[in-house]
Design brief:
mainly alpha; 2 domains
Length: 200
């Protein structure tokens, strides 16, 4: 795994003029600083979907929302677990893409007076305690001045990738359901207002 990670980081290190094949181990401080920058750039790339991947991620979140509305938890779980760790193509979203898109949505909703109350009025769908803890972590991060998107690395470190993916889906779905209740409109109308408007 270490070899695979270093292979992924190698192009980013080369941007700093460091070639792992020829670099001396004498200057560990400079190497560690370069590795830190390389990891940051790699993570930014992982969480930066193409427009097609973003559309795919929004579709995943919509399908989960609709499944939970119909009380089909197992279907919602299957949809979430069906997201691949790595994208199968340029128009398929990865786990990181769905997390990134969901956190961006939640940050935007928290920043908007019209939707902020819906975020914090969401009801947790029946799920694991790990996923529920991730939802709480997401909401705390979204209410922070930096926002949840900026703290994605910390959220993954605390909750793990799968729990964070589930937490994102639950938080997005819960917000849309809360919006429908608060605005006294159908779930479809809230999906259109909160999700599909972002897919233009």
């Amino acid at each position: 795994m270490a070899d695979e990670l270093l292979a992924e980081l190698a192009p980013y290190l080369l941007e700093d003029g460091i070639d792992l094949r020829t670099t001396s181990s004498d200057d560990l401080e400079s190497l560690n600083l370069a590795l830190g920058r390389a990891v940051e750039r790699r993570n930014a790339a992982l969480f930066d979907p193409t427009p097609d991947q973003r559309s795919y991620a929004l579709t995943v979140l919509r399908l989960v929302t609709e499944a939970l509305h119909d009380r089909q938890r197992e279907l919602a779980q299957a949809i979430i677990w069906g997201v691949k760790p790595e994208p199968e193509s340029n128009d398929h979203a990865s786990v990181a893409h769905v997390i990134a898109v969901g956190l961006d949505l939640i940050d935007a909703w928290v920043a908007d007076d019209a939707t902020r109350d819906s975020v914090f009025a969401l009801r947790l769908a029946p799920w694991s305690k790990e996923a529920h803890a991730a939802v709480n972590g997401i909401l705390e991060a979204a209410d922070d001045s930096e926002g949840a998107s900026a703290l994605v690395g910390q959220l993954i470190a605390v909750h793990g990738g799968l729990a964070l993916l589930e937490g994102v889906a639950i938080a997005v779905s819960g917000t849309i359901h809360a919006d429908a209740r608060r605005c006294k409109r159908s779930l479809a109308d809230s999906v259109n207002a909160l999700l599909l408007r972002d897919d233009d």
